[in-house]
Amino acid sequence: MTAPAKPPASAKRSSARRLTQKISTTFVDATAKPKLSTEDRRALELDTLAAILPMDRRDVLATLLTDDDVATLKHLANEGIGDNSLRALASDLAYLEAWSLAATGGPLTWPAPEALALKFVAHHLWDPEKREADAAHGMPAEVEEVLRAKGHLRSFGPHAPATVKRRLAHWGTLHRWRGLDGRGSWCFTADASYRA
């Protein structure tokens, strides 16, 4: 009696490969990270700043801020910026991003062009008397409606010059922290805002 022929080595390897594939599709890898949406991932990143940033704002910030924005805020927290300063910076950055989305249809660009900074000033520092005569003066109604509907704009009328100057200063500071020219040609608008 002859011994049965052994299957070739390649057949053993292919059957082992099929078994491995079957097992890997049958069982869930316990070490695999779940797939998260971009906003959920940002929210988890912002959780690391929970001691500084208010938790009720986390989800709003996650929808407004970009990955680079969150990375910048985390870097600042690690560098030891004061809690109140970081909260103010995050709040102003969230407002700037919300305004940019409403006014331009896209997030802030880095580096920001001078025209965008001037548009920000024009939308926030305007003459109430001129607005009565010309509805197009100041912030366009559709931009204002979007910001109000999302809870970013609560005041009526032009912003205080100090608020606009602070937001522009934070915008310039964020340029520097991102390694961009924070003293670009548009930084004069912070000084011009007081004259407006």
What does this protein structure show overall?
With 196 residues, the chain is mostly helical. The chain has one domain. Helix content is 62%, strand content 0%. It has 10 helices and no strands. It has helices at 9-26, 38-47, 58-64, 67-79, 83-104, 114-124, 128-133, 141-149, 161-177, 188-195. Keywords: DNA-binding. This is Integrase.
Give short descriptive properties of this protein:
mainly alpha; globular; single chain; 62% helix; DNA-binding; Integrase_recombinase_N; 10 helices; 196 residues; disordered C terminus
Topology:
Elements: H1 9-26, H2 38-47, H3 58-64, H4 67-79, H5 83-104, H6 114-124, H7 128-133, H8 141-149, H9 161-177, H10 188-195
Helix pairs in contact: 2-3, 4-5, 5-8, 5-9, 9-10
Order of helices and strands: HHHHHHHHHH
Number of strands: 0
User: Please, how many helices?
Assistant: 10
Terminal residue distance = 106 Å
Query: How much of the sequence is in beta strands?
Result: under 5%
Category by helix and strand content:
mainly alpha
What is the arithmetic mean of pLDDT? 75
Query: In the residues, how many domains can be counted?
Result: 1
Q: Percent range for helical residues?
A: 55-70%
Structural Rg: 26 Å
Shape: globular
What are the segments in which pLDDT stays under 50 over at least 5 consecutive residues? 22-32, 188-196
- How does the major sheet shape up? none
GO molecular function, one term: DNA binding
Keywords: DNA-binding
Organism: Rhodoblastus acidophilus
Protein name: Integrase
